Amino acid sequence: MDTTNAHPAGAVVVGIDGSDHSERAVDWAAVQAHQEGRPLVLAHGTGTLGRGPTAGTAYLLEADPHAGRVLHELSVAGHELVEQAAARVTERFPELSVHSVVRTAHPRQVLLELSRDAALLVVGSRGHGPLRSVLLGSVSVGLAREASCPVVVIRPHNQGLVRQGVLVGVDGTADSTPVLEFAYRYASTHDLPLTVLYSVWDLIATTGDSLGDEGTDPGVDDARIRLAESVSGFGERYPDVHVRQTVTRGLPTAALTTAAERMDLVVVGRHHRSGLGNVLLGSVAANVVEHASCVVAVVPVETVFARTNGSAVG
């Protein structure tokens, strides 16, 4: 393992904090790096003993003579965590190129910096709840909103369920192209079926009961056309992927989280929207990250044409 704190571009980066959740993230990231032939970077931020993600250490060291020793101990503990994770990974994948990064900084800051030249960022999740949200500072949601590369959040799930492959939410615009690309590639690499979901925006209708077709409603018919246009061409590039296209009516978050209950992975897009756009679209990606019962991938996209009447990507 490379312990120089240097890291290669195009790697799969995974955050480590010693929890069971981060161990699951490491295992998932190692499999993905192996499948894609990419290096793996194990990253740990020790924290700064300050009050926020950007707090520095210089003032703290001047104010508290014992702070230096505490920071050193945190660094030593961080290196031990990373070394243990690396040993587990290399035992399973001896040929995998593994690198470590341990920095005296807030974990969120470390991971955001590494995301700038990473292919993928993977983080664990302790689940949704008031106490957990306070303790974590919504780190996984914050990373999903701000990272420069796709972010995978390893959500808690029921391991006893038989799962049905990959689910991807689309909005019928060109914005969905990178989201579909990620989903198709993952389904192909892991030999999984793919469900492509378009949710017609409707504040009154409910979507939690079924993913079936919604009759002959003109809005749904238009959505089916947009959905077919969105996936056009992907079948030729990924002929091995079995694809199911489905349209539903209601709130995109409800449609995606309901369908995700039996999926291996759900893929959503993250748009750079205005404040008003986020209010109208309900921050779909953030809500899926918080509530889905399977692994979630959030893919950043450049907004080509924003819509508010039909979207499963937020």
Task: Outline the low-pLDDT stretches.
Answer: 53-63, 127-137, 207-214, 274-282, 304-314
What's the name of the CATH homologous superfamily of the largest domain?
HUPs
Based on DSSP secondary structure assignment, what is the total number of beta strands?
Answer: 10
Would you tell me which CATH topology of the largest domain applies?
Answer: Rossmann fold
Query: Strand portion, in percent?
Result: 15-25%
End-to-end distance: 38 Å
Q: Helix and strand succession?
A: EHEHHEHEHHEEHEHHEHEHHE
Provide the CATH architecture of the largest domain: 3-Layer(aba) Sandwich
| pLDDT averaged residue by residue | 80
Helix/strand/pairing class, anyone? Answer: alpha/beta
DSSP helical segment count: 12
* Helix content, binned percent: 40-55%
- Main sheet: strands, sense, barrel: 10 strands, mixed
- For the largest sheet, list the strands in their spatial order: 3-2-1-4-5-10-9-6-7-8
Count of spatially separate domains: 2
Query: What is the CATH C level class of the largest domain, in words?
Result: Alpha Beta
The shape, in one word, is elongated
Question: For the CA atoms, what is the radius of gyration?
Answer: 20 Å
Textual characterization of the structure:
With 314 residues, this protein is of the alpha/beta class. The protein has 2 domains: 12-154, Rossmann fold (3-Layer(aba) Sandwich), CATH 3.40.50.620; 166-301, 3-Layer(aba) Sandwich (Rossmann fold). Helices cover 40% and strands 19% of the residues. The chain is built from 12 helices and 10 strands. A 10-stranded mixed beta sheet has the order 3-2-1-4-5-10-9-6-7-8, sandwiched between helices. Helix 7 links the parallel strand 6 and strand 7. The two termini are 38 Å apart. The model is unreliable at 53-63, 127-137, 207-214, 274-282 and 304-314 (pLDDT under 50).
